[in-house]
Specification:
Layout: H1 37-48, H2 66-70, H3 73-76, H4 79-87, E1 92-93, E2 106-108, E3 116-117, E4 127-129, E5 132-135, E6 138-141, E7 170-175, E8 195-200, H5 212-218, E9 236-238, E10 251-255, E11 262-265, E12 281-283, E13 286-288, E14 315-322, E15 328-335, E16 340-347, E17 353-359, E18 365-367, E19 378-382, E20 385-389, E21 396-400, E22 411-417, E23 426-433, E24 440-443, E25 458-462, E26 465-468, E27 473-474, H6 482-488, E28 490-494, E29 498-507, E30 514-529, E31 539-542, E32 556-562, E33 566-570, E34 583-586, E35 589-593, E36 598-599, E37 612-615, E38 622-625, E39 637-642, E40 644-648, E41 651-653, E42 666-671, E43 676-680, E44 692-696, E45 699-703, E46 724-728, E47 759-762, E48 775-778, E49 781-784, E50 804-807, E51 814-817, E52 829-831, E53 834-837, E54 843-844, E55 858-860, H7 863-866, E56 877-881, E57 891-897, E58 900-904, E59 909-911, E60 925-931, E61 936-940, E62 952-956, E63 959-963, E64 995-999, E65 1007-1011, E66 1026-1028, E67 1031-1035, E68 1040-1042, E69 1056-1058, H8 1069-1076, E70 1082-1088, E71 1091-1098, E72 1106-1110, ...
Length: 1264
C-alpha cells in the first residue's frame, strides 16, 4: 500500500490530507479507523485485479470465536493491557498526563522516566468511567444498541463518463457506491460490481489515423525518463509482442530505431487493443475479450478475407508460383491492400535466393533488402499487421500474416538472386474480398517474345499486357500500374549463333602517285557463323544497318605513292550486276607513264591494280502477306482478301520496289452472321372493354434471307419496335356512393395520377460520335402525356425504347510508310513514302487518316553523310547563327539574343564580319514574351506605325494588365486598373511604355511605306497566334498608293507579327490527363469557351475522366422531397410556414428524402449541370433527390408548398444563366424561387407535385 503523502496519491488528496490509516507520520489528528481516498482506490484496484482471485475462495473453518467478534477491542483488552501490547511488558496507563480520556494512549513503565505514546487513541470499547466507554477517541455513554451491525446497500448508478476514444472502440463507465446505507459496526459490505463498462464509438478509424497505442507513446516524445543513452529528441513507439498477459495493458514503449523497451505508464487508456492484431480490449489495466466489431465481450470474428462478421461468401483465394531464374533483384508480385492470410514460401534447398518485401506506397524496404538479409526469425510491422518472417536460414523461407487480419496498404514481393543462382521455388497464397480484389493486372499474355533486335547477339523481350483478371481479356494499359509493368518485362538473349563485324573488301588507288596520300577503303558488314569450326571462313554479307552499333573503321587510310614513273589508269565503273542482294562492278585498267603513254602491264605493280568491287549489298525487298481483311459485308455472304505488301526487314516500301510478277492475290468467301431484322405481327384486342387497357403484338428477330426466326442477339443495335401499347375503347361510367373530389388517391400518399395518356416519346438519333473505330449514337427518350407532363413512372418500364446504339464500328484507316531512301547529296535529306490504307487493305486519300499522327516523309541526314557534297557557288562566306538564348524575363516582355559570326564554310573557320558585309545580316535579338508569373502580368501589343511621315514622330501600343494562371496561361480579358491603387494587380512601376519616339523616313523622300492598324490576333493563346496588317507604298507628293517597287525593300515594315504567345489552358480533364501525364483527382484550371474555369477532375485513372464543380464548403446545396402530408390536404395552416410538429401524416423514405451535394457533375460541352449524378452527395434521409429539384404531397392549397432546394455556386467559377427557369409538375404544384447573384433558393410542391429545371434549358451555367 502506498503512503498518502506519495506523488501517486496526489490526484486523490482533496479536503483532509493527513491523519488516515496510511499516513506516513502519526500525530494527535490520526484516525486509525479511516482509509484515505487514495487507499480506497488502490484497494479497489487490487480487489478487481486477477491478483485478488484467492480472496474469492471462502475459508473452510472460522477460527475466530464469537466471543471475540461480538465484543469491541477495548472490552477484551483494558487500557493497561493495550500499553503492554504497544510498548512491552510492564507498561501501564500513565496517570499523570493531562490529556482527554480516550484521545491519546499514554503509557509508562516507571514514573521517573515519564510517559510515552504512539499518538494513537484508546481502543474502542475501553472503559473510561462508570457507564462510559471509548469510541473513536471520545468518551461516551455506554450503549450497545449503537453498535448494532448495519449492512451496506448500493446507491444509484452515476452518469456515464465520456467515451475514451473517438473511433475504433472506446470504453465508457458508470460507478455506484455502497452508501445507501454505509455499512457500519461489522455489517456486510455490498456485494456485486461497483462499476459497469460499455463500448462506445465502435466505428473503425480510417487508415490515416495512427494506432491508439502509438498516440499514447508519442505523448512522451522528448522525455527521457532519466534513462541512459537517450537524448532530448527521443521519439517513442509502441512495443508489441509481449509474452505475459499482465503486461498487455501496460504502456510499454521503445525509442524509435531501438529494440530496448520500457514501461512508461502502468495502464493504457481504456479502449486500447491488447495487441497489434488482437480485438481484445484493455479496460482499467485488464485485457478483456472483444470482437472485431470493437465491442466488449463480443464474439463477432473476421472471416478469411478480413470482413467482420462475414461468412467467407465474398472471399477470393489467390494462389500462384514463381520459378524464373534471373540473377539480380526482380519483382514477383504485388499483394494488394485488403489482403489477409498471406503465406509466401520459398523452398530454399541451400540456394542463394532470398525473399524481399517492399512498401507498395513508399518503395521502402519492409523485410530484407539488396544489401541486408535477416538469417533468423523476426517480426516486422507494416500495413497494419505484424508480419512473421522465418529467416533466410530456414529450410523453407516463409512470410506469414496473422489470421484474417487485412493489410492497410499494398506490399510488393521481390526475389534477390545472387551469383549463379538456382531457379527460386516460390509459392504464394492470400485471401481478399471481392470488393478489394484488383480487377486488372499485368500478364505475360500468350508468352509472345518480341522479334530479336539484332540478327546476331540480340535481345528479345516479353512485355506483359494489362488484362482483366476475371476474364483474362486484354485491356488498355491505363488500367494497370506502370511501375509493375517495368518489373514484369522479361528478356533473353537471341541469335547467339553468330556475330557481326566490319570487314575490308576493297581499297581504292592512292590519291597521289608519289609521296603521302589517301585512299578509300570499302567495308562490308559480315555475319559470321560461330557454330562452325574455323568460323572466320563462314560468313555472309548483310546490310550495313546491322553493324551500325559497332564502331566502323575509317573510310580513308594513308597511303604512300611509290614515286614510280608508271601508274594504273582506270575507266569508270560499270553498272552493278544486280540492283540488290550483292553484285559486282568492273572496270578496265591500263599501265601508263607520266606522259599518259600506254605501257606494258609489266611496268606497273600488279598488287595496286583494282578492277572489281562488291556493290548493292542491301537486301532485296520481298512480298509478304498481311492478316485477312474484314469481310466485305457485315452480314450475309461476302469475301475477304489477304493483302500483300512490299518490305525490307519490316520497312514497308512502295509496291513498285518489288517484282510485280511474284505478287500473290488471295481471296476467299466469308460469312460473318445472317442478316437480320425485326418482324412485327398485328396488335391484339384491347385488354379492357372500357377505360385504359393494353394491346400486345409479337416482335421477332428474323433472318432476312430465309425469313426464319433467329436469336435476338443478331438484331442487337437495331431499334426494336414496341410490343405493348396502351389502348382505350371507351370511357367507363360508374356511380360512386360518394363524390370524388380529387384526382389523386389521398389515402396512399401516392403521386400516381388517375389521368392516363402517358407514353414513351423518342427524339432523333444524334450523329455518330466517331466516323470509324466504334462510336455512339443516342437520342432522347421521355415519358410524356398530351399536356406535356413528364414522369418515367407512368410509362411501362418493360417497353422503354433504346436510347443508345453502337455505330461506325469499322476499323479506322491508318498510316503505312516505307523505308528511308539514301541521303540526297544536294538537299542533305532522305525521303520515304507515307500512304493512308483502310481496313480492306486499299490505299485511300490521305484526308481519311488522322493528320496529327502522320509519320514524316522527309528527314534531314547526318552532316557527315552530306557535307562533302555541298556546293558553295563560288562564295565561301556566310553568316552562322547560334541558338537563341532564354528570354531575359520570366514575366512579360523581354529580349532574347543569339551569337552571330562570319564563317568560311569551305575551311569551317571563323573570320571577321567584313567578309560577310555584302550578305543580309540575320537578327541577333528579338522581342520575346514569358508569362511564368505569380498572379498578374502586363501584356503588350505590337507597335503602331510612326506618326510622322518623315523626321521625328511617336508610335503607340496597347499595355493591359491580365490575370496569369498556372504554368503561364493568361486570361485574354484585361483587368480594370486603378492607378491610385498601383499594387492591386500588376505593379504600375513595372508597366512597359505604351509610347516611344520614332523616326519616319527621310523628309526628302517621295515614296515611303505606310501601314494600317494591326488586326485582331488569330488565336487567344498558344504558339499559333498571329496578327497581320496591310502595308503599302505611298507617294507623299500625290498622296496616293503606288506599286511596291517604288519603296525601299529593306525599309519595309513587318506585315505579320506573333501575338498572344502565352500558354493555352487545357480544354478538358481528358486533355489534362493526356498532356500532363497525371492520374490525380483534384481541382484543375481549364478553358471553356475561351474562358478560364476551375473544375474538379474525377476518374483520372480511367479512360473517361469526368468534370465536376466543387461547391464551396460554406455554401448550402441540397434538394428534398418533403416527408410530411397534412391530414387535411385542403388546408394551409401556420400561414404556410413549415412546422415540424404539424398535424401531418409521415411519408415513407421511398417517396421522400433529402440529399446534400458538395460536388456536382458538369457537361462542359453544353455547360449544364447533371443533377442526377450523386457521386459526391450525402443522403440525409430517404430517397435520392436530383440537384435543383424538390417536391411534396403536403397540401393542395396553392402557395403552401414546403419542399425546398438550394443552389449555391458562390466561390466557384460559375453562376446559373439568367434564362434558367423551373417548371412545376402536377395539378396542384407550384414553384417559387429567390435568386441572387450566385444562389437560387426554391420552394416547390403541391398535392402531390414537384418542380424541375425547365426541359431544354436545364441547369445551364455561365462562367464568371
Amino acid at each position: 500500500m502506498l503512503h498518502d503523502e506519495t506523488e501517486s496519491c496526489s490526484y486523490f488528496r482533496k479536503g483532509r490530507k493527513y491523519g488516515y490509516i496510511m499516513s506516513r507520520m502519526l500525530n494527535n489528528g490520526t484516525k486509525p479507523w479511516l482509509w484515505s481516498e487514495c487507499s480506497k482506490h488502490y484497494v479497489t484496484e487490487f480487489l478487481e485485479s486477477s491478483k485478488a482471485k484467492c480472496l474469492h475462495k471462502a475459508p473452510a473453518s472460522n477460527y475466530i470465536s464469537s466471543e471475540i467478534t461480538e465484543l469491541l477491542p477495548g472490552e477484551n483488552f483494558e487500557a493497561d493491557k493495550q500499553c503492554e501490547l504497544e510498548f512491552g511488558s510492564g507498561f501501564r496507563l500513565c496517570p499523570f498526563k493531562d490529556q482527554p480520556t480516550c484521545a491519546v494512549l499514554w503509557c509508562t513503565s516507571n514514573y521517573l522516566y515519564g510517559c510515552r505514546s504512539n499518538l494513537l487513541p484508546w481502543a474502542d470499547g475501553t472503559s473510561c468511567g462508570r457507564g462510559k466507554w471509548c469510541h473513536h477517541g471520545e468518551c461516551i455513554p455506554l450503549d450497545r444498541q449503537m453498535m448494532t451491525p448495519v449492512v451496506g446497500g448500493w446507491g444509484s448508478w452515476q452518469p456515464w463518463t465520456e467515451c475514451s476514444r473517438t473511433c475504433g472502440g472506446g470504453v465508457k463507465y458508470t460507478k455506484r457506491f455502497c452508501d445507501t446505507p454505509v455499512p457500519r459496526n461489522g455489517g456486510a459490505y455490498c456485494t456485486g460490481s461497483s462499476v459497469q463498462y460499455l463500448s462506445c464509438n465502435t466505428q473503425s478509424c480510417g487508415n490515416d489515423v495512427p494506432d491508439f497505442r502509438e498516440v499514447q507513446c508519442s505523448e512522451f516524445d522528448g522525455i527521457t525518463k532519466n534513462l541512459a543513452n537517450l537524448t532530448n529528441d527521443v521519439q517513442w513507439v509502441p512495443k508489441y509482442g509481449l509474452g505475459r498477459k499482465e503486461d498487455l495493458c501496460k504502456l510499454y514503449c521503445r525509442p524509435k530505431n531501438s529494440n530496448a523497451y520500457y514501461p512508461l505508464k502502468e495502464k493504457v487508456i481504456d479502449g486500447t487493443k491488447c495487441g497489434m492484431n488482437s480485438f481484445d480490449i484493455c479496460v482499467n489495466g485488464i485485457c478483456r475479450p472483444g470482437g472485431c466489431d470493437n465491442k466488449l465481450n463480443s464474439k463477432v470474428e473476421l472471416d478469411e478475407c478480413g470482413i467482420c462478421g462475414g461468412d467467407n461468401s465474398k472471399c477470393q483465394e489467390v494462389t500462384g508460383n514463381y520459378n524464373i531464374s534471373r540473377t539480380g533483384y526482380h519483382m514477383v508480385l504485388r499483394i494488394p491492400k485488403g489482403s489477409s492470410n498471406i503465406d509466401v514460401r520459398q523452398n530454399a534447398n541451400n540456394d542463394t535466393n532470398y525473399l524481399v518485401l517492399v512498401d507498395g506506397e513508399t518503395g521502402e524496404y519492409v523485410l530484407n533488402s539488396k544489401t541486408m538479409i535477416a538469417p533468423q526469425q523476426k517480426d516486422v510491422i507494416s500495413g497494419g499487421v505484424i508480419i512473421n518472417y522465418s529467416g533466410s536460414s530456414a529450410a523453407v523461407e516463409r512470410i506469414t500474416t496473422p489470421k484474417n487480419h487485412k493489410l492497410t496498404k499494398d506490399l510488393v514481393l521481390w526475389i534477390l538472386s545472387i551469383g549463379e543462382a538456382r531457379p527460386p521455388d516460390i509459392t504464394y497464397r492470400y485471401i481478399i474480398s471481392e470488393e478489394s480484389a484488383p480487377r486488372y493486372g499485368w500478364s505475360l499474355y500468350g508468352n509472345k517474345w518480341s522479334k530479336c533486335n539484332s540478327i546476331c547477339n540480340g535481345t528479345q523481350y516479353m512485355n506483359p499486357v494489362c488484362v482483366e483478371l476475371a476474364t483474362n481479356s486484354e485491356q488498355s494499359d491505363s488500367y494497370c500500374s506502370e511501375f509493375d509493368k517495368k518489373h514484369r518485362t522479361q528478356k533473353r538473349d537471341c541469335n547467339v549463333h553468330c556475330q557481326l563485324r566490319w570487314t575490308d573488301v576493297s581499297r581504292g588507288p592512292c590519291s597521289v602517285n608519289c609521296g603521302e596520300g589517301l585512299r578509300t577503303v570499302n567495308h562490308q558488314c559480315m555475319k559470321i557463323d560461330t557454330t562452325k569450326e574455323n568460323y572466320d571462313h563462314y560468313y555472309e554479307v548483310v546490310d550495313h544497318k546491322h553493324c551500325n552499333h559497332l564502331r566502323k573503321p575509317p573510310d580513308h587510310e594513308p597511303c604512300q605513292g611509290l614515286c614510280e614513273s608508271t601508274r594504273w589508269e582506270y575507266t569508270s565503273w560499270s553498272e552493278c550486276s544486280v540492283t540488290c542482294g550483292g553484285g559486282t562492278q568492273r572496270r578496265s585498267a591500263k599501265c601508263v607513264d607520266d606522259s599518259s603513254h600506254v605501257m606494258d602491264d609489266s611496268h606497273c605493280f600488279k598488287s595496286e591494280k583494282v578492277t572489281e568491287q562488291v556493290c548493292n549489298v542491301r537486301k532485296c525487298p520481298v512480298w509478304e502477306s498481311r492478316e485477312w481483311t474484314p469481310c466485305s459485308v457485315t452480314c450475309g455472304r461476302g469475301f475477304r482478301t489477304k493483302p500483300y505488301f512490299c518490305h525490307v526487314d519490316g520497312k514497308v516500301l512502295d509496291p513498285s520496289a518489288c517484282d510485280s510478277r511474284q505478287r500473290h492475290i488471295e481471296k476467299e468467301d466469308c460469312f460473318e452472321r445472317p442478316c437480320a431484322g425485326w418482324s412485327v405481327g398485328g396488335w391484339s384486342e384491347c385488354s379492357a372493354t372500357c377505360g385504359d387497357g393494353i394491346s400486345n403484338r409479337k416482335v421477332i428477330c428474323r433472318n432476312l434471307d430465309d425469313n426464319q426466326p433467329i436469336q435476338e442477339t443478331f438484331c442487337a443495335g437495331i431499334l426494336k419496335p414496341n410490343d405493348t401499347k396502351f389502348c382505350k375503347i371507351t370511357d367507363c361510367t360508374q356511380t360512386l356512393p360518394y363524390q370524388r373530389r380529387f384526382d389523386n388517391d389521398i389515402m396512399t400518399n401516392s403521386i400516381t395520377s388517375y389521368d392516363r395518356g402517358f407514353r414513351w416519346i423518342t427524339g432523333a438519333w444524334s450523329p455518330c460520335s466517331k466516323s470509324c473505330g466504334g462510336g455512339i449514337s443516342s437520342r432522347m427518350v421521355v415519358c410524356r402525356n398530351e399536356f406535356g407532363e413528364e414522369h418515367e413512372k407512368f410509362c411501362p418500364l418493360n417497353v422503354v425504347p433504346v436510347n443508345r446504339i453502337d455505330c461506325n464500328t469499322h476499323q479506322c484507316p491508318h498510316w503505312e510508310y516505307g523505308g528511308w531512301s539514301e541521303c540526297d547529296a544536294k538537299t542533305c535529306v532522305k525521303m520515304r513514302q507515307v500512304n493512308c490504307r483502310n481496313s480492306t487493305g486499299s490505299f485511300v486519300t490521305n484526308n481519311q487518316c488522322d493528320n496529327k499522327t502522320r509519320p514524316p516523309e522527309v528527314t534531314p541526314c547526318k552532316p557527315s553523310q552530306c557535307h562533302s557534297y555541298v556546293h558553295y557557288n563560288n562564295d565561301p562566306y556566310k553568316w552562322s547563327v547560334g541558338k537563341w538564348k532564354p528570354c531575359s524575363t520570366m514575366c512579360g516582355e523581354g529580349k532574347k539574343y543569339r551569337h552571330l559570326v562570319c564563317k568560311n564554310v569551305q575551311l569551317q573557320s571563323v573570320v571577321v564580319d567584313n567578309y560577310c558585309r555584302h550578305l543580309p545580316r540575320p537578327k541577333t535579338n528579338v522581342t520575346c514574351e514569358k508569362y511564368m508569373c505569380s498572379n498578374y502580368a502586363w501584356v503588350t501589343t505590337a507597335w503602331s506605325q510612326c506618326s510622322a511621315f518623315c523626321g521625328e514622330g511617336v508610335r503607340n501600343r496597347s499595355v493591359t494588365c491580365h490575370r496569369v494562371y498556372q504554368k503561364g496561361a493568361v486570361d485574354h480579358n484585361p483587368l480594370s486598373f486603378d492607378k491610385s491603387r498601383s499594387r492591386d494587380y500588376c505593379d504600375w512601376h513595372q508597366r512597359p511604355d505604351d509610347k516611344e519616339m520614332c523616326m519616319g523616313n527621310q523628309c526628302n523622300e517621295v515614296y515611303v511605306w505606310r501601314s494600317e492598324p494591326w488586326r485582331e490576333c488569330s488565336h487567344t493563346c498558344g504558339k499559333k497566334g498571329r496578327t497581320t496588317r496591310q502595308v503599302y507604298c505611298y507617294n507623299l507628293k500625290t498622296h496616293q498608293k503606288v506599286e511596291k517597287r517604288h519603296c525601299s525593300r529593306h525599309a519595309k515594315p513587318r506585315r505579320r507579327a506573333k501575338c498572344n504567345q502565352w500558354r493555352c489552358l487545357f480544354r478538358s480533364c481528358k486533355e489534362i490527363q493526356h498532356r500532363m501525364k497525371t492520374r490525380v483527382n483534384k481541382d484543375y484550371l481549364i478553358t471553356i469557351r475561351n474562358k478560364p474555369a476551375r473544375v474538379y477532375c474525377y476518374k483520372m485513372d480511367t479512360n473517361q475522366p469526368e468534370e465536376y464543380i466543387t461547391l464551396h464548403a460554406d455554401g448550402v446545396n441540397y434538394a428534398e422531397n418533403y416527408d410530411k402530408r397534412l391530414k387535411n390536404p385542403h388546408s394551409c395552416p401556420y400561414d404556410g410556414r413549415r412546422v415540424e410538429n404539424c398535424d401531418c401524416l409521415p411519408i415513407g423514405p421511398e417517396r421522400s428524402g433529402r440529399t446534400i451535394f458538395w460536388k456536382v457533375r458538369l457537361n462542359i460541352t453544353s455547360l449544364r449541370i447533371i443533377g442526377d449524378d450523386f457521386t459526391f452527395s450525402r443522403q440525409i434521409s430517404g430517397m435520392r433527390v436530383p440537384y435543383g429539384t424538390a417536391g411534396d404531397c403536403y397540401s393542395a392549397v396553392e402557395g403552401c408548398a414546403q419542399a425546398r432546394f438550394s443552389i449555391d455556386l458562390a466561390g466557384t467559377s460559375f453562376r446559373l444563366a439568367g434564362h434558367v427557369r423551373w417548371q412545376s409538375i402536377g395539378k396542384y404544384a407550384s414553384v417559387r424561387t429567390v435568386t441572387t447573384e450566385r444562389r437560387v433558393d426554391g420552394l416547390c410542391g403541391g398535392y402531390c407535385g414537384n418542380c424541375v429545371p425547365e426541359p431544354g434549358i436545364g441547369l445551364h451555367v455561365e462562367i464568371t
